Amino acid sequence: MAVMEKLKIFVVKEPVVAASCLIAGFGLFLPAVVRPILDSWQTAEQVPPPLLNDVVAGVTGKKK
After folding, report:
1. pLDDT tens readout for residues 44-61
2. Could you list the residue ranges that cross the membrane (predicted)?
3. Is pTM, for the whole model, over 0.85?
């Protein structure tokens, strides 16, 4: 019996297990392939963080 024939029989007998295996395959594939692609893109320049005094003034509502 060919491998594809056995696979078809398995999918018909155990559709939930076959679907779980397919979902797990995507779960392993996506991080392994997509993450390096995203990391290779050049990111925009980092925005400097605001001064702590400005943050405190914004939270407390007090202006300078």
Report:
1. 777 889 899 888 888 888
2. 16-34
3. no
